[in-house]
Write a structure and sequence with these properties.
With 420 residues, this protein is an all-alpha fold. It has 21 helices and no strands. α12 packs antiparallel against α13 and α19 packs antiparallel against α21. The protein is elongated.
Length: 420
C-alpha cells in the first residue's frame, strides 16, 4: 500500500491526472485493508478537486465501510453526494443504507439526531427511536422511487426484517404493506426473503404464520434441488447432440455459471427450525416443538436422498446443507421437556446426548454437570448480515438467540425438579 501511494504522489507531482480506477483502488486499500478512513476521505476530496465529480464505485465502498463501522452520520453524508452530483444510486448501495437505518441503536439514533449533550444522559424512549428510524427509511424509499431504483430481493428482505423487529405491533403495518408490495411486484421471494418473513413474524408473536413460511422455505429448497437436477439432465441431453466444439465450450461455460449461481444462493439451515422450536416452547406448545423437529428431520432425509443422486464432484460443488440434529437441537428439546415436566422424554434426550461422543461437553453424570454445560456460550444463530447484507451465506446464520436466557431456564428447571 505504501508503494502504491508513492506512485500516486509521484504521478501528481509530475502533473499527471489519476484515473477514477486509481482513486478507487487507493480508497479501497486505505479503507478496507488499512482501516484508515481519514486517508480515504482525503483521497476522495482530491478526486473531487481533480475530477469535479465522484466515482460511484468509490462512494459505494465508503458507504459500505462507514455502515460496517456503524457510523450512520458519515455514511449519510457520503450517500448525499449521489444526490448532489445527480448520480443514479444502485440498489445495493441503497440497501446498505436501509440496513444501517434499521440497525441504529438508541444511542446511535441520538447522535444522528444531534440531541443536545445535556439530554444524552437520558435515553430516548423506544417509540421515539422507532419514529426516527421509520422516517429515515421512508426518506430513503422515496429517494429510491424518485430515481427509479428497482427494488430487489435484498431490498424487500431488509424492509421486512427491519419493520418486523420494531417493537411488537409498531412495525407490523409497515411490514404488511411491504409484503403486499412484494406480492404485486415481479420478484419471486427467495430463501433469504422467506427467512426475513419468518423471523419478523416470530418477533411479532405470529407463530402460525412463521411456521407457514418455514414450510415454504423447505418447499423452495426442495424445488431448487429439482431444478438443478433437471438443468443437469437437460445439459447432458444437449451435449449428446454433438454440436460444434465452439458450442460445446459455450454450453460448458453456461453450465459452470449456473453451478456458480447455485453456490452463491442462500441455503436452508437449522436456524429457522431452532428459532420456531424455541418460540413454541415459550408458548408452552411442546407438541408444536416436536412437529417442527419432525419437519427438520424430514428435510434432512430429503437432502440426504438428493445427495445420493449426485456425483462426488457435484457434492463438493454444492452448498453444504446440514439439517441433522446437533447438540443445540438436543439442548432445545431438553428445555422443552423440562418446561413441560415430561421427565421421561427428557431422560431419553439425555441418553441420546450421552451416546454421542462428539457432544462430550453436554454429557453429564448428574444434573449439575448439565447446568455447567448450559452456561457455556453456544451461538445457535448469528446476526442477519447474510440476509440483509450480501445474502449469500447459510440461513443457519440469521439471528442471535440469547443462549444465556436458555441456560438460565435450564438451571432453574433442574434446581426445582432434577431428573430422577
Amino acid at each position: 500500500m505504501h508503494a502504491a501511494l508513492e506512485l500516486f504522489y509521484d504521478l501528481v507531482r509530475r502533473g499527471g491526472t489519476p484515473t477514477f480506477e486509481t482513486y478507487h483502488s487507493l480508497i479501497v486499500g486505505m479503507s478496507v485493508f488499512k482501516n484508515d478512513m481519514e486517508a480515504a476521505e482525503l483521497l476522495l476530496d482530491h478526486m473531487l478537486v481533480t475530477k469535479k465529480r465522484p466515482y460511484v464505485q468509490v462512494l459505494h465502498v465508503m458507504i459500505r465501510e462507514y455502515t460496517r463501522r456503524r457510523d450512520f452520520r458519515a455514511a449519510e453524508r457520503i450517500f448525499g453526494m449521489l444526490k448532489e452530483y445527480r448520480i443514479k444510486p444502485k440498489a445495493i448501495t441503497c440497501n446498505m443504507m436501509l440496513k444501517a437505518a434499521f440497525d441504529m441503536s438508541p444511542l446511535e439514533a441520538e447522535d444522528v439526531m444531534g440531541r443536545p449533550k445535556r439530554h444524552q444522559d437520558r435515553a430516548l424512549a423506544g417509540d421515539a427511536v422507532t419514529v426516527f428510524k421509520r422516517a429515515k427509511v421512508q426518506k430513503l424509499l422515496a429517494y429510491m422511487r424518485h430515481n427509479k431504483v428497482d427494488f430487489d430481493q435484498v431490498t424487500y428482505s431488509t424492509l421486512i426484517y427491519g419493520f418486523g423487529h420494531f417493537p411488537r405491533g409498531e412495525g407490523y403495518p409497515d411490514m404488511k404493506r411491504t409484503m403486499v408490495e412484494l406480492s404485486q411486484s415481479q420478484i419471486e421471494p427467495n430463501l433469504a426473503v422467506l427467512s426475513s418473513l419468518l423471523f419478523a413474524h416470530l418477533q411479532q408473536g405470529k407463530l402460525n404464520r412463521a411456521e407457514v413460511f418455514l414450510d415454504q422455505m423447505v418447499g423452495l429448497s426442495r424445488q431448487e434441488q429439482q431444478d438443478y437436477s433437471m438443468s443437469k439432465s437437460d445439459y447432458a441431453k444437449e451435449f449428446q447432440q454433438r454440436p460444434s466444439p465452439f458450442r460445446i465450450l459455450f454450453q460448458r461455460k453456461t453450465h459452470h455459471e449456473q453451478q456458480q449461481q447455485q453456490q452463491e444462493r442462500a441455503v436452508l439451515g437449522k436456524g429457522p427450525f431452532h428459532a420456531i422450536m424455541l418460540a413454541l416452547i415459550e408458548h408452552g406448545d411442546i407438541s408444536g416443538m416436536e412437529r417442527v423437529l419432525d419437519k427438520m428431520m424430514a428435510a434432512a432425509e430429503d437432502n440426504h436422498k438428493y445427495l445420493l443422486t449426485l456425483t462426488p464432484v457435484e457434492v463438493k460443488r454444492r452448498p453444504v446443507i446440514d439439517l441433522k440434529a446437533d447438540e443445540h437441537t438436543a439442548k432445545i428439546l431438553l428445555l422443552g421437556y423440562l418446561t413441560a415436566r415430561d421427565f421421561a422424554k427428557a431422560e431419553l434426550v439425555q441418553a441420546q446426548i450421552n451416546a454421542r461422543p462428539e457432544w462430550a461437553h453436554l454429557h453429564q453424570a448428574s444434573p449439575l454437570v448439565l447446568q455447567d454445560a448450559a452456561t457455556k456460550p453456544a451461538v445457535l444463530l448469528t446476526d442477519q448480515d447474510s440476509v440483509l447484507g450480501e445474502l449469500e451465506g447459510e440461513l443457519d446464520d440469521n439471528i442471535e438467540i440469547d443462549v444465556t436466557t436458555l441456560s438460565a431456564k435450564l438451571r432453574g428447571l433442574m434446581k426445582s425438579a432434577p431428573l430422577p
